[in-house]
Amino acid sequence: AVASGAQPIPVVSDGLGKTFCLRNRSGVSFAVVKPVDEEPTPPLGMLGRHACSRHSARASETGPREVAAYLLDHDGFSGVPPTALIKISHPVFHTAAAQTASIQRFVSHDFDAGELGSSRFSISSVHRIGILDVRLLNIDRHAGNILVKKQLPRKGSYDSYCGESAMELVPIDHGLCLPEILDDPYFEWLHWPQSAVPFSESEVEFIAALDPLQDADILRTELPSLRESAIRILVLCTTFLKQAVAAGLCLADIGDMMTREFSTLEEGPSVLEILCQQAEESMNRSATLASSDEDDAVDEDSSRDVAKEIQFEMECDDDDDDDDFAENCIGEVLDIPLLLQRKACEHRLHSLREDDTEEDYDDGDSDDDDREETKIGGITKSVSFSAAGFNYESAGSGCKSISFKDFTEEEWAVFLKKFEQLLPEAFEVRKSTGLRQRLGTSCKF
């Protein structure tokens, strides 16, 4: 198209970067091109919300994320338009060098979601976009990147039983999905009444068939530039989604558990973040106990050797006048194992304290607020939250998130196992409270 004279036309966009349309000779748009070699600029009024987002997804990697959303939308379930990565060169980009860009099929539409009331949207469309956003931890699903078009309802869906056809939704702009840290998502659909409707049978079957590990392999093969920390977010969130749906939760419950709590003074962690913290702590406790058992075995052997040596020296002592001293020494021998264990404990705590002192923080912040004092055996130890694989990464004032980038493959596997073990109880709690929260929701569309 470019070789035949088609001009990339800049379009007004509420996204983070510049967007161009390619049009045919009749002036009809057929593709959308987004260069990704430039730093994205948040639109006016969205600077606060995107302060975290800019640290969650790198500017040069928004294109691969656009493609990732298409690759993971199996069988077009959520309606992501076909998307690919290209190299493109044109004077309109103000550079002679070819630029990396994402190219996506243009979708003709009647509105975007911000121009209509949500009651006009089909239940299945809301569910299908929500399922995609949960899997990808989309931190930028606002009304402007949900296109609306008139279409007949899908056969067998809720909407096929309605008297009039509902509007169909098309998700676009996925450059801020799959963040590198467990960031706070933004789900426009979270409080739409459709999200409180239970999933249909076909939706439950689709979710049950998802394989997060296979999806991760697809991304590693097709998009090698996508970082492993982002791929692990996909695995975590897909696992969370699958178990939540199996437990009977609706889309609104799932989205709410993934979203951070806000109070008048500060931002609190989401249920998902708390579960990740608990899983990491459980993993650390297991590792500490295993290490302690090994150390205790070594300490016990050492204490036996020391006791035998002291006992031997006393038995070989020819001085009969030191009986009282010998008795005192024998009494001390009984406490040697405890002494050695205490010394070993102190040594381990000292090692941990040195590790904490040398630990690097990506945000460069060493304030005392990020650390806590823990007393173990009368010894005060200053520890950070992350002793193993977690990092709190600063992404703006008051915005800190968990990263899995420092986990080894073995640690990541152990963490996922611990995480899955915590989910059933959390979902039971949610089911008991979620109904009360939704009592005032109208399900009439």
TrEMBL record:
Ranges annotated as biased composition (Acidic residues): 355-371
Record InterPro entries: P4KG1-8 (IPR044571), PI3/4_kinase_cat_dom (IPR000403)
EC number: 2.7.1.67
Keywords for the protein's UniProt record, in alphabetical order: ATP-binding, Kinase, Nucleotide-binding, Transferase
Keyword ATP-binding part of the UniProt annotation: yes
Residue span of region Disordered: 283-304, 355-377
Molecular function terms from GO: 1-phosphatidylinositol 4-kinase activity; ATP binding
Top-level class of the enzyme under EC nomenclature: transferase
Domain PI3K/PI4K catalytic: 6-291
The family this protein is said to belong to: Belongs to the PI3/PI4-kinase family. Type II PI4K subfamily.
PANTHER family found in the cross-reference section: PHOSPHATIDYLINOSITOL 4-KINASE GAMMA, PHOSPHATIDYLINOSITOL 4-KINASE GAMMA 8
Protein's name in the database: 1-phosphatidylinositol 4-kinase
Lineage, highest ranks first: Eukaryota, Viridiplantae, Streptophyta, Embryophyta, Tracheophyta
